[in-house]
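quick one before i forget lol
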Amino acid sequence: MFAKRSWAEAFINSIEKEGGEIEEGLNTLIALASGELNLISGSSASEKLNTLIMKKMVTLGSPSGAQIIAIRFFLLMIKKNVMRHTTQIIGEIKKTLDRKRGIVEASIEYAQIDAITPADESRIKEAVKKWTKAAEVNLKGQLKTDLIGGYKLRIGDEVIDASISCQLRKMEACLSSGTCGQGTTPAMEGSNG
């Protein structure tokens, strides 16, 4: 399994050690990865690229410490033949930065009949903040017609499934197993009957 977290931490730690701006380094890395350079691999190619990139950076102005580290990191990725994992590494860098800043990413899937209003969104963000002790919550909504009604909230690896389709699956399992009415109800699992 690829160690994306190790690569992300190495990138962040290198920039922090030099006292650079991580966002600036990340933006440089994203720019390098989104160009044609990401198709190149091998150690000899990385040496040639180093010269080309540095020349280009000088023509644009003197590169900052964070930009130089991002360039070196990008070249190391080419040399170590991990360019196919660039998206994963960049995603992990963003997640790590968000964790350090106390920002939580959450998504909510909802049925058409339960469209999220701005007031609902605000209440959900406040509840997630309280639950996770986050400084900020980035909430993304998505319409999912297969939910029938209700919602499914994802916070990191946690999922709160309050959809009607989930409740129907629980009820079906309960009826199939013959355990209904023995202290729990399918719609309110975990509560005493």
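fyi Residues 4-99 form one domain.
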